Amino acid sequence: MRAPLSMMPLIPAATAMAAGIILSALTDAALIGLAAIAASIIFAALKQNHTAITTCAAAAGALAFGVGAPDEEALPFNRPITLEADIKEVKDGDATRRLKVSPVRYADEEGSYRLSNPADIYLYIPSTEPYTEPGDRIVATTAIERPETRTYFPEETSEQQRMKRSGIAGKAFVKPENIISAEPSPRIMMRLIKLRMSITGIIYRSGMKGDTKRLVNILITGDTSDMNQSTRKSFSGAGMAHVLALSGLHVGIIASLLMIALYPLRLCRMRSAASASAIILLWSYAAVTGLSASVTRATVMASVLLMASMLQRRHSPANALCLAAMLIMAFDPTALFTISFHLSFAAVAGILLFARLLNPTAPRRRIAHRLAGIVSVSLSAMLATGAISAYYFHTFPIYFLPANVAVAPLLPLLISGGATAITIEACGGDPVMLNSVVDRLAQCVTGIANLCNNLPGATLDGLYFSPWLLVGAALATALLAYGLHCRRMAGMTASALCAVATISMGMIQATPERSGVYIIPAAGYTCVAVATPGSVSIISTAGDRQLSEIAAREMPRMRDYMGRRGIDTLMTANRRAEFPGVVYRCPTLHIGNSSVVFADGNRNTKPTDSAPPVYVIICRGYRGTMKEIATQYRPDTIVMSTDLNTKIADRYMNECRQLNMPAYSMRSGRIPDLNALLR
User: Fold this and answer.
1) Residue 512: its pLDDT value, please?
2) 570, 556 Cβ separation under 8 angstroms
């Protein structure tokens, strides 16, 4: 039976609060807040109480954003400071450690300052010493830099945009000798992170196998730092990526384990004490795992359910979902813009809207109803999140339904078995048999993911579409929900038409573009990307043996451009290559009626064309003089590449000045516009 709208009063309030946050992010939070407060006063005077409460929620959203959003400008950029920061995350590279830290205070020549609500930054340390871990507080001398905003290729995501998606506002490089101290942080949240690290340590000291330890650690603590890329790819390709991210599924299993452990209280007729203890323990678990949006949402909903049971009141899942959203937005308004928030709330909303309607069996047939519920819940969640996931990750898993149906009965056993095993380990026991069972369960879960990911046509890749098509998909889903709930054929027909129109618009191909040529500087080489209507190719000053490695390194900046045009592979060009409007004859790149020469130690630096080149780009390895370049080529401009040694580049610039030759360095941020030569 459908709940009436009067049973769900938090839906308008949660929507208004989200609107207040979005408008505050686009304009001024204070202006939006004052306007909403004024509107609420007017509606209250007109005795429009529901509307007044809704506008108050919008004002609360604006206030939350104005007060709670991380302040990037609070950070002291581009000046020497002594920084004190709490470490949230540690990621080890080949020779460098990357720390995600929350600055606490800093000191410079003018004095010491405590930072209020600053954004997080990355600290890069070119050493594994001294040892640091999440939960520590580090003090070091450094300088915080802003992420680079420049892009070198069309539709490339800048470093600033990539870091901002992760809530990172700056970066800093710290030499090991500049680290003053690293010790445990006194903050409560950092101590909880330390506790999570202790739980991880117990898991890794257990008698389970290596792969099982990693999977159990992810399922219980949510720590994915040790997860390898192949595991992530297998679970994602099978439509099981949610298994590797703590969510309502995991919290529900933990809540069930807690209720089993607290069952003696119920036997003693202390139901309220059991429910209250479960709520406290659930929130403790959520705090230890980091209070992510999905875990917080599930914990709020579970708490509401338990409190309703304690107070013997009716429970509205939609209200609980809206309450969870409002609490998250109140304490972390920027969470509204994260992928995890969108996927988590969309999945639960889809389950609430569709799961019961898609279940073909009657509730009185309990076993059949629950078995069919596994299928209907998976379908409902994917119905609500499929378009969102495809928009963000550009792929859609085809075999998500059999994968999730097969894994659903195994996950509760795996999580409960792993939790019981590490509890026994922490108490000094050695659960050999239980560890063996957990190993088998982990192998089954991983095997299902690998099997579904390796099936033919496991995923639809290259799904790039505009946000407007995402709006169309959301509208089609909403119309379908309306049609099913109201049993109106018109609603379902409108949903089908909207879905067809959205898919059709997404399949319309843009007019092929003409060729483009882009210089992409790097530390050890200079390369040029040539984009044609059907391909993207890399030409590099590095040796031919390094081309495949360079292509793999440069692929991330070109992935979106290629994906939107259906280009699967980044090509590499050797010493001779031809493209529409562009011809490469090492070391000369002919663009239209002009040419560009790359001068380095491995190239023939003799002229290959009678016409003087527009640019001669001096690259790493060149050993001649600028006088030789001027005599051989007579270029319009000489350009120093970023892969040149700084001292050598300065010497060449001085030689150019003596010869009155136009010259500049790409280190200054000025990159030759080779596309201008095509026009």
Assistant:
1) 61
2) no
Closest CA to 606 of 628, 627, 625, 589: 628
**To the nearest 5 percent, what fractions of the chain are helix, strand and coil?**
55, 15, 30
Residue showing tokens 């000045």: 657
Return the SS3 of 126. coil
- DSSP label at residue 530: E
Alpha helices in 116-187 (DSSP H): 159-165
Instruction: Judge contact between 165 and 104, C-beta under 8 A.
Output: no
Spatial separation of the C-alpha atoms in residues 82 and 140, rounded to whole Å:
6
Question: Is the backbone of residue 276 left (phi > 0), alpha (psi -120 to 50) or beta?
Answer: alpha
Q: How far apart are the first and last CA of the chain?
A: 66
Q: Which SS3 state, helix, strand or coil, does residue 78 take?
A: coil
Sheet holding 588-591, edge to edge: 576-579, 582-585, 588-591, 594-599, 615-618, 637-640, 663-665
pLDDT digits (tens, 9 = 90+) for 16-49: 999 999 999 888 888 998 999 999 999 899 888 8
Q: List the structure tokens of 199.
A: 């739980």
Distance CA 90, CA 247 (A): 23
Q: Over the stretch 321-347, which tens digit does the pLDDT of each residue have? A: 999 999 999 988 989 998 889 999 999
Instruction: Tell me the C-alpha distance between 185 and 138, whole Å.
Output: 8
The angle subtended at Cα 122 by Cα 119 and Cα 126, nearest 5°, is 160
* CB-CB contact of 335 with 341 (8 Å): yes
| Ramachandran angles phi, psi of 603, nearest 5° | -120, 155
Q: If you search the block for the tokens 């031809």, which residue do you land on?
A: 578
Shortest CA distance to 668 belongs to which of 150, 86, 140? Answer: 150
**CA 337 to CA 542: how far, in whole Å?**
41
Number of H helices, E strands in the chain: 22, 20
- Joined together, the tokens standing for residue 11 give 């839906």
Give the C-alpha separation, 473 to 494, whole Å.
Answer: 12
Cα 249 to Cα 298: distance, rounded to the nearest angstrom: 8
Pairing mode, strands 395-397 and 168-173: unpaired
User: What is the percent of the chain with per-residue pLDDT over 70, rounded to a whole number?
Assistant: 96
Phi-psi region of 292 (alpha: psi -120 to 50; beta: other; left: phi over 0): beta
pLDDT, mean over the chain: 86
β-partners of residue 367 are none
Residue with tokens 């040529």: 517
Per-residue confidence (pLDDT) for residue 486, from 0 to 100? 79
- Residue 449: phi and psi, rounded to 5, are -60, -45
- Distance CA(40)–CA(42), nearest Å, equals 5
Residue 290 has phi, psi (to 5 degrees) of 105, 0
Report the C-alpha gap between 458 and 452 in whole angstroms. 7
Rounded to whole angstroms, the Cα distance separating 458 from 436 reads 31
- Helix/strand/coil (H, E, C) string of 218-247? HHHHCCCCCCCHHHHHHHHHCCCHHHHCCC
Residue 208: closest CA among 498, 455, 445, 425: 425
Neighbours of 606 (CB within 10 A): 8
What is the token pair recorded at 663?
A: 């010259």
530 beta partners: 517, 537
Phi, psi of 597 (to 5 degrees): -110, 135
Global pTM value: 0.86
